[in-house]
Amino acid sequence: PAAAIVGVARERSAELVVMGTRGHTGLGRLLLGSVARNVVLHAPCSVLVVREGAAPEPVSPGSGRSSSAP
Fold this sequence. Notes:
This protein has three helices and two strands. The chain is an alpha+beta fold. Strands 1-2 form a two-stranded parallel ribbon. The model is unreliable at about 65-70 (pLDDT under 50).
């Protein structure tokens, strides 16, 4: 799957790949491999990885900071 994602990113001259991850650690990642990790290492563009269950923080337009920041 990682090679296919990286291939499509190259073919389409992507500027960003956005993908999710379940956040496996330790033995789970060792046995299953990490598609997200391989995409991050080999993609020709930036990669945004969002962990499963992570709640997004609202961002104020134009500020580049979260709305809860002072």
